[in-house]
Sequence to fold (220 residues):
Amino acid sequence: MNLVLLFLGPTLMIFLGLQVMSSVPLTFLLFYGWLFAVPAVEWFVIRRKTRKETFRQMGLVFNRKNVYHGVATGLLFFLTILLAGYFFHSFLFDHDDLQALLADWQFSGDLVIWLILVLLVINPFLEEIYWRGYFFKMLEGKRSVRAILLLTSLFYSLYHFLSIIPLFSWPYNIMMVVPVFIAGMIWGYMRFKSNSLVGSIVSHILADAGIMAVYILFLR
Fold:
């Protein structure tokens, strides 16, 4: 039961923040609070690990080849997202509905720049630490690598449904979760092959930068 709660916790936080309270800032507080608090309590309070031990076990160690792979995959994600936004944004989004929805979610006005910075700076670190760091280490030795990659990518993708479905036009909103799942598999595989999370974080930052670039250039 505890494992199920840990898998579903981020989705519940997104649901409460977006669907129940309709607030992106509050969603960020709940969601990132969960992603930060669960690993921190597990490793520093319950297991009483030192910071060095925790970083090593979670994969927060430098690996040059892993970083190169992170930059390469991240740039590929960035360019793919940017080109898709350029050519297909009129099909993927209803501009007026999107702006109204973002206003309802309080993703508007002077607050936008801070929310974008959160998505670019905080989001990649905490999501990768939670799914490809904390969960990977917790399941290591208990499940096969394939099962770990599938489970973490599946539940990582799950809460994206809650934000993607309202943002995109039908039927693209259902299809858009597939790239999220694929990215999760790639980042998980990179972490497994190198025993380092740094490349996945770099790649994730660039992917999120592509999403924000599409928003700023074509959707505002």
The radius of gyration is 17 Å. The chain has a mean pLDDT of 91. The CA atoms of residues 170 and 176 lie 10 Å apart. The longest helix spans residues 64-92.
